[in-house]
Amino acid sequence: MKSVLITFDQAHYDHIVALLDRLSCRGFTHWERVRGRGTKSGDPHYGSHAWPAMCSTILAVVEDAKVDPLLDALEKMNKEKEQLGLRAFVWNIERSI
């Protein structure tokens, strides 16, 4: 099992949840309003007057075989709207209950 942390502009939320459904990645946790700034490009998401956009984050635990299809689809989504910002990071899950 792997955990996939996905950070994204709020505009991507419905598309990401639909993608998780399509890949049968059932379990996830969603944080609706997070702030941040990407390391490569795009605008900061601070929720301020100067930078009003906000980010969201999803943490999903998925089977190893689903990681690559998920990341490939997220990468495609990001390339279609790079200025919105979307990043994904993967960690091993050592143990769960």
Architecture overview:
This protein is α+β, with helices and mostly antiparallel strands. The protein has one domain: Alpha-Beta Plaits. It has helices spanning 13-22, 64-80, and strands at residues 2-9, 28-34, 55-62, 86-92. The protein is globular and about 40 Å long. A 4-stranded antiparallel beta sheet has the order 2-3-1-4, with helices on one face. The protein contains 2 helices and 4 strands; from the N terminus they run βαββαβ. The two termini are 12 Å apart. The mean pLDDT is 89. Helix content is 28%, strand content 31%.
CATH structural architecture: 2-Layer Sandwich
| Unreliable spans | none
Query: Averaged pLDDT, please?
Result: 89
Instruction: Give the radius of gyration.
Output: 13 Å
Class by alpha and beta content? alpha+beta
Order of helices and strands: EHEEHE
For the sheet with most strands, the description reads: 4 strands, antiparallel
Number of domains: 1
Number of helices: 2
Features:
Alpha-Beta Plaits; 97 residues; 2 helices; alpha+beta; single chain; four-stranded antiparallel β-sheet
How are the elements arranged and paired?
Elements: E1 2-9, H1 13-22, E2 28-34, E3 55-62, H2 64-80, E4 86-92
Antiparallel strand pairs: 1-3, 1-4, 2-3
